[in-house]
Amino acid sequence: MKQNPPLSPIARRHLRQDSCDIVHDALDGSECRFLRFRAPASHTFPGVAAVRTCPAGGWLLAGENACFWLPRLPTARCLDDDGHILEERPAPIAGIDLDAGGLTITLAPEADFVADLVVWRLDPGLRQELTELTPIETQAYFLWGSHTTYSRPADLYLHLIHGRVYENRASWPKHWKICSENDAHALYVLFSGLFRSTGKRIYQLFKQQLLRSVLARQADDGGWYHGEWTDRMESHFRLHTSALHLLQDAWEESGDEETAEALRRGAEFLLERADRLDDGIWFLHDSLELSEASMRQSPFAWLPSRAFGKSVSNMLVLNSHWDTTVAIDRAATLSDDGAWRRAVAAANRATTQILAARPAEWLYRPVFGLIALSFLPTDRAAALPLWQRALKRIGWKYLIPRFHHLKRRYPRLVMPGGYLDRALSLKGISTAYQAINVMDLVRLHARFPQLNLRPVIDAAIDFTHRSGLWERWGEDRRTRYAYGFWAEALHRLALLDDDMGVRRRLAATLARMEALNLGLPPGLLGGDRERRQPAGTAFPQVSAPLRIVDLSREGKMEYLVLNPGQEPAAWNPGTSELQWFDAEGRPVAESVLQPGRWWLGR
Which residue from 334, 495, 513, 561 has the fewest beta carbons nearer than 10 Å? Predict the structure, then answer.
């Protein structure tokens, strides 16, 4: 297992040459340039004599004394003044010429468009790293923000665009691409895991690019702003806290003061915007919640409420409150006066109050029982007797659209059976957020075991599998992303003890994700510094189609290897430090892992 060398911000410069804007990253003897052409222009790669495809994605432009890497073809983009990508398509290439001087590409962006091109100049070591890839480097990985996949190094530049990190999707309701620290953090964690497993320097350089891009986007008031929902560039605090997590990881690796200062300012930004409850404070979902006037610009239907003493415009969203609590607690080592720790304690009191609220059980139990019939997968729903199908129809047609009124009259978010509703004041039910809520609650539990959150977590997990919701997610493309967060939740829970039931559900979820082409969540390679640093030095290498999950924690090494394919796969653990067992706990003697089976190495 490789230990991360000290990580510090890279040298980044912004240049202008005629009609081309350049973001230049100097990277340990190599360099990466983001070229943005605003008018027809040419760019020459000197010394290039040949062009060939690159196993890492994109193309290598090679010569006797030069090697350039183009991760992606030139892309034409239409942007607004806030940096949203309104439209993108392949950029028109007006000419390609190869002569004694090298390779020259001429781009001709259309009116109102720019043409973007990413160019790396590689040293020999990086060239070798990008052309000799291991299977773990080319499998698909699920990204938390855009819910899309990364499958090889060139895919970084679907997100890292002209020095900013974007989601690789057009966001509802504006259908434009926004900057996303959530995807930046997911990629950072992924590259930390890939560095652990391969030792390749390129992944440390990618992390430096992500760090510099996140630092560059921080506003003067300490915030990160996105404008996903409105033209007012509101801040989405889940994305903001992802920036804090990334900065915390980088600071723990480097101790860099610029990173620490950005982290301090970002934490203060959230603390200043917390809402006061009857007991404790609540961290908000986004900056629109700061007033009723701004909430009227929100695309969501919501219901004003002063439950638990909150402000009217606070929707009381669970997952962002828990994520922010964890982020502030992680960053609290930078605060000398204890104010951040007191804020975290106040946030935990609010969490305890909300989770304990179980009013009107006599009413919620039958009402939510009817609503939960809508969580059944199609085959189980079709097998219901006629009278239950009639009750199911009442649930989805009449109760779900009016459920927010019941929550306003009798405020609660923990439902009978264990379901965790997303928010108090939002209309409708978002079943995919069950996975996100459980993931964030497990993270909170890992940091604050004294809160006794495990009964709520266990009930939520049991409900999800018992109710059919776990299967139901896979039937709708709009909710399949829930598996990515469910796997993260089970993975983080497995780091806390040796529960085999959790491991069985984790293996089943990963198999389902592979079947749906969702990839492996980034934290499962062990690169997330929020967890305790894993023990030992072994990191088994796997061949396709096998998948490996790092379950190591302080004082114990453990790996889960899964065969999600359709054929038996040879397995050679390559280390004597681990003993391997099957799903029933029996020692493994064979060297072939059958389809759908998994083993544990401890």
Answer: 334
